[in-house]
User: What shape does this take?
Amino acid sequence: MGKSQSTREKQARPPTARSERTRREVLNAAAQCIAQEGYAAASTVRIAERAGVSWGVLQYHFGDKASLMAAVLEYGMAQTEKHFEEMIAAGKTAPTLERRLRMLVEKSWQSYSSPLARAATEVVINNRNQWRNDPDKDRYLLELDNRQIRLARQALAGVIGDKSLAKFLAGIFLAALHGVESSLLQYGPGQRFPRELEALVQILTSYCMQKSSQKT
Assistant: This one.
């Protein structure tokens, strides 16, 4: 069935500053709701209440819950990309390799432990099996993974100064962050995991120093 004329007209109109602000408020409210109350409790009615908008306004911007959850996932990825770009620029200022890597790990964890990132992960967990049966959604999930890998490689290359080594370490870097993130989802917000994050810093530093000594 094709889209109605009113839907096509709404999508064709450029978003206003007010509508963009409303969309962000709803997305942030959805992220907070999922992170604090769980995916199942995050109904469109509950999210609308948190955002301070009517259910009709939420439906106008996002449609049903499935579309809203997909928007939360994309919003989370977009914010992660923006955060990584800022980290890449800031990370180059630290004087030593270890301090640059520590800054990268700490800033990355701030992003991955945020309510928006936790909500995006919950969306994937709760929809992955269903989306795997949809070729378009399956390709989208693969692209999300690839986007994270590209970000990690760029960030590490900026800190280390070696693209080949950054390409190798990106997998370790992301696996560690996702592992700690899984613990956060299990134990709840407020956990800091300082030992685990410091271990990641030391592993990355040690490997970089080892490779550097092999070249000399």
